[in-house]
């Protein structure tokens, strides 16, 4: 990220004139908490953020990457057949380069635990933290990360740190005043203000679990991982991303709700990983005519039930409309996905649903969900990720599928020709958009002696045969 600063100067001729007395206000003023309405003093938000800003840290990271010494040449002859035809060695030399980046974080314990975005600290060699109220720097250790929510926890060896206060993000409302605190563009601790412009935003394409707070407070590069606080200075969200065509702030920023951040941080600190409960259903939200056939007009509609899953064992069926889980009202499919994802494997739940116009209830325990889906073992040796916006840097928007992030040596996947960076776009004639669809398509074809897998690689669709 480059920062462009344009300085301009204008030279003009002028003639000295009589002095001017500018109208000035008194320097003798009082600052008042925003909750008060006395208009005889200046309205100030200083007291809203004076403590919270000391809980927000600057994070700088570095990692060593290897670049080709001649990227144009290597890209032109990227095809292995061309390399062999022209007798070009696979590796023509490379150079190592250290890449630095900046972000923010929020102190959540006095002994040094800090929450930030996963993309701020992912795949880094070194993490350095500097506090807002002094110039001292600390080396940080990665405690754990959760790419599915884009959250991570790091720790520094320090005591008596200023800890952020958490607000209940379920209680925030559109129009609430909020402040974004972080390190935009690497200029140091900065504060911007705005309002909550929307809630429960999903399908943005950033994370697998999305329930964003949308705000018009400026969230610029470097703000990622910083705090979004309310007028009390209490944390309502972790600044995560900005929607922009130009790379600048266009008034649409997204923050991860503090309740989600708190649950993820607790799991990462206690276990080093997030273990999610698994229901075993495919779901959608009620839309259009489908609302007319249900008594309730909101909920998560079950469109498929996985064989052998907790949902099947509990008697749930396609067409059931989930209305409530425990004390959580379910308004749409995203509500159900996020809430179940916040629960632990083997945790017992009470699920209320509508079937054939009647409201029913069932109690059962969730199953475990593995962090890396290998399509139930049908593709031995593959690690897969949903294709989100951060993984799409050189991939056309028209290409959808599942990214191959790792291939185990001497596995069935390697023998079938899979490579890191492949995007699985179809199984047989079924197009694939995410991990769930891939898993379902593979299961539907498991009885075949071989399965045709289509992958997107280097700009072209290629066929691989899985036996």
Coarse morphology: globular
Summarize the biggest pleated sheet. 7 strands, antiparallel
Give unreliable regions as ranges: 1-26, 370-376
Helix content: 10-25%
Distance between the termini: 45 Å
Average pLDDT reading = 78
Spatial order of the strands forming the largest sheet? 7-6-3-4-5-9-8
Radius of gyration: 26 Å
Total DSSP E strands = 29
Q: Structural class of the secondary structure composition?
A: mainly beta
Strand content: 35-45%
Query: What's the total helix number?
Result: 9
Q: What does this entry look like structurally?
A:
This protein has 467 residues and is mainly β. The chain has helices at 46-49, 71-76, 80-85, 118-121, 258-271, 310-313, 333-341, 412-415, 435-444, and strands spanning 31-32, 42-43, 56-68, 94-107, 113-117, 126-130, 137-139, 141-146, 151-155, 177-182, 190-201, 212-215, 227-229, 235-242, 253-257, 276-278, 281-285, 300-305, 321-325, 328-329, 348-355, 358-365, 367-369, 382-386, 402-407, 423-427, 430-431, 451-457, 460-466. The strands form six sheets. Strands 7-6-3-4-5-9-8 form a seven-stranded antiparallel sheet. It has a six-stranded antiparallel barrel with strand order 10-11-12-15-14-13. Strands 17, 18, 19, 20, 21 and 22 form a six-stranded antiparallel sheet that branches. A hairpin with a 2-residue loop joins strand 26 and strand 27.
């Amino acid at each position: 990220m480059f920062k462009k600063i344009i300085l301009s100067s204008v030279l003009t001729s002028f003639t000295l004139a009589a002095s001017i007395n500018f109208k000035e206000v008194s320097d003798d003023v009082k600052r008042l908490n925003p909750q008060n309405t006395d208009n005889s003093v200046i309205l100030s938000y200083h007291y809203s953020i004076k403590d919270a800003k000391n809980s927000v840290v600057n994070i700088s990271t570095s990692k060593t990457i290897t670049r080709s010494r001649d990227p144009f040449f290597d890209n032109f002859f990227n095809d292995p057949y061309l390399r062999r035809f022209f007798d070009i060695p696979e590796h023509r030399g490379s150079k190592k380069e250290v890449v630095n980046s900046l972000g923010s974080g929020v102190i959540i314990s006095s002994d040094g635990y800090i929450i930030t975005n996963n993309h701020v600290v992912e795949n880094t060699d070194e993490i350095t933290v500097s506090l807002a109220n002094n110039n001292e720097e600390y080396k940080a250790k990665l405690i754990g990360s959760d790419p599915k929510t884009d959250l991570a926890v790091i720790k520094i060896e320090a005591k008596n740190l200023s800890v952020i206060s958490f607000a209940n993000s379920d209680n925030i409302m559109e129009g609430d005043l909020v402040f974004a605190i972080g390190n935009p563009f690497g200029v140091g601790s900065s504060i911007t203000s705005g309002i909550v412009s929307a809630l429960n935003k999903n399908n943005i394409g950033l994370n697998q679990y999305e329930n964003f707070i949308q705000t018009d407070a400026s969230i610029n590069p470097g703000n990622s991982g910083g705090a979004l606080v309310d007028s009390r200075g209490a944390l309502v969200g972790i600044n995560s991303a900005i929607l922009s065509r130009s790379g600048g702030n266009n008034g649409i920023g997204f923050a991860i709700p503090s309740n989600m951040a708190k649950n993820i941080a607790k799991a990462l600190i206690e276990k080093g990983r997030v273990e999610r409960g698994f229901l075993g259903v495919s779901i959608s939200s009620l839309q259009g005519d489908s609302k007319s056939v249900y008594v309730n007009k909101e909920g998560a509609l079950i469109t498929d039930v996985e064989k052998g899953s907790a949902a099947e064992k509990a008697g749930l069926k396609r067409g059931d409309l989930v209305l409530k889980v425990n004390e959580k009202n379910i308004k749409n499919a995203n509500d159900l996905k996020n809430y179940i994802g916040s629960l632990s494997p083997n945790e017992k739940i009470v699920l209320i649903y509508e079937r054939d116009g009647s409201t029913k209830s069932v109690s059962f325990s969730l199953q475990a969900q593995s962090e890396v889906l290998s399509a139930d073992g049908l593709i031995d040796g593959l690690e897969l990720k949903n294709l989100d916006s951060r993984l799409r840097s050189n991939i056309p928007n028209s290409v959808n599928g599942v990214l191959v992030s790792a291939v185990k040596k001497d596995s069935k996947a390697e023998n079938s020709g899979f490579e890191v960076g492949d995007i699985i776009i179809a199984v047989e004639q079924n197009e694939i958009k995410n991990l769930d669809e891939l898993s379902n398509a593979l299961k539907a074809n498991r009885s075949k002696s071989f399965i045709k897998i289509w992958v997107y690689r280097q700009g072209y669709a290629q066929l691989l045969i899985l036996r």
